[in-house]
Write a structure and sequence with these properties.
heterodimer; A: 275 residues; alpha/beta; Rossmann fold; 2 domains; six-stranded mixed sheet; 12 helices; B: 258 residues; 10 helices
Chain lengths: 275, 258
Amino acid sequence: MISLNNVHYRYEPEGIAALRGVSLEIKDGEYVALIGPNGCGKTTLIRHLNALLLPDKGSVEINGLDTKIAKHHTEIRSCVGMVFQNPDNQIIGMTVEEDVAFGPENLRLPAAKIKKRVAESLQRAGINDLATRNIENLSGGEKRLVAIAGVLAMNPRYIALDEPTAFLDPAAAARVLETMDNLHRAGVGIIHVTHKMEQAALAERVVVLNKGAVYLDATAAKVFAETKLLQQINLRLPQITQMLLKLKKSGLPVRTDIFDPDEAADYIGQLIKKK
Amino acid sequence: MYRAGTFISGESFVHRLDARLKLAAVVSLSVFIIWAKPLTILFMGGCLFCAVLSAKITLRTLGQAIKPLLFFIVLIFLAHALFSRNDGSFPGISASGMREGFVVTWRFLLLITAALLLTMTTMPAQIIAALKYFLRPLKHLRVPVDDIVVMIMLALRMMPFLLWQKDKIEKAQLARAYDWRRSSLKRRVGAFLSLIIALLLGLFRRADELALAMEARNYARGERSSFVVLKMKPADYRTAFVFAVMLLIFMALNYYLR
């Protein structure tokens, strides 16, 4: 379990607080979306989960290990993998398998074990065909998947992803989301930072941050029902929800807790048939 | 379009050779190329050409890899052709200058080809592992070999980024109607300085993020393991023997030829 207790953080002693008393618990295998306006502390928060940042006040515990204790860092970083926003700034190797092997090499695993982990991670990320490819020849979507595979090679229980579909075309974004979904089904906890409400709606739980504090924390249906609260911090609703709300406003008695376009189409189709 | 220095996957005889053998061969060949007499390096060129063909690398690919260096190759040739005169008068074209120019250019081309053959047929991870193998004795002198190897790895990784960043900044300058080719020397110097500053800023930002990403994947200074296992096979020993014999032949040629 990941546990944040009253976490405060400032990048500079006299600067603005990036996190102000964040308390949060994330269970094993949970899929959590982290949303909020720019500068609300999303990236700062997930960097605390990997002990890249340490709280000024409060504590972060990963499976009971306090991130402030340096000797825990190796275990914490193996437990919570981090996928950065820009894969080019994360990929270290020149070829795909070389990069995926970087983490296990740091853990000083024997060569045979590293090879096994690399093969498994590439398989789980769905890119085993790219193993010997040069990083420079990959597309943006493929690079994201390589970054995910690199993290998977550490055998993490959680993966924190910072806007993993930013700057990707719809097909590449769908492939990344599908990989994340597969990992979640396999029991890996996902912490997904995103600006895309449609993607946040896919999560089991949505945490909204505002000005470094938890603003809302509930299921997607409950969070997106708080239209006024979300509008106050300039967050828009998923497009499907916007459409259903407009239908409801025009007098149709429709549900507004559907976020999947296919499901919404079926639902509206059934309503039309009933009429 | 092939980008110089990158690995081309393949199953050729040269591809399958042990990376240590290839690295040692390139280093010894390079020393010999610099030291040998002109006629000897002509023969060496022929052998290197056969090695390139046996690695199934087309001349077109080789040409694409050498193309970015064409300016320097021409410059080296001209410098020697114009300024290497035995009679003491310069500049001017002379037969001896031309000959000198050809020889130096040929040496330079062979050195590049040998290095390209290594990088084209060997995965970077294997080159790094081979380098680590040869540097290993320095560990006894407390030289941080693992850290040096990671630094080389990062430097190799940063090269394409630098080229990409340079292109991006130049295009951004062009998009704002600034063409350095049509500017005065003063403006060119100014543009060059702003390009360098922008490049350095980008590089530092990226290095900062990369350091964080390395930390996130449990990187710490000191010993690391490697997923590359280098093992000499019978074919490698045979090749090493043939290579040594060829080097001896070159040395003999070098001794007897003018």
